[in-house]
Amino acid sequence: PSLAPSFSWVDWSEYGTRKDFWINTMLNTVSTFQLTDHDHFNGFAMTSCRFRHEIEPLVARGFEHYLVACSEEMRQARMAAAGYKPNASEAADVSELLAKELATTMPPERIIWNDDAPKPEGYLSVAEFVALK
What we know:
Blueprint: H1 21-30, H2 52-60, E1 67-69, H3 72-81, H4 94-105, E2 111-113, E3 124-125, H5 126-131
Parallel strand pairs: 1-2, 2-3
């Protein structure tokens, strides 16, 4: 018997052989939908893209890139509430470094503020993002 989960839409033969495995799987799955030019990827969201090799193929296929951000205090509080205990190497993690870089280099209108703290100027609230068409 196979040890792979039974998700029939996943080509498990590629698992562990390519760094874009999950993005490729998602793009292949989305491509099975009958989309018109008008609703091209409208309503699809890929959350937790934490590496450039995940973001770049999505943008190349027409996805719009947004960053979801919150204050460091909120991030720490959420992690603590989930029982996560950060360690010293976390700050040097590649995905954490990318998130920090994106927070300083992305246009403010592409950043979604997911925090109760006051929203930085130009950022979208979650409600404003959801209302985009």
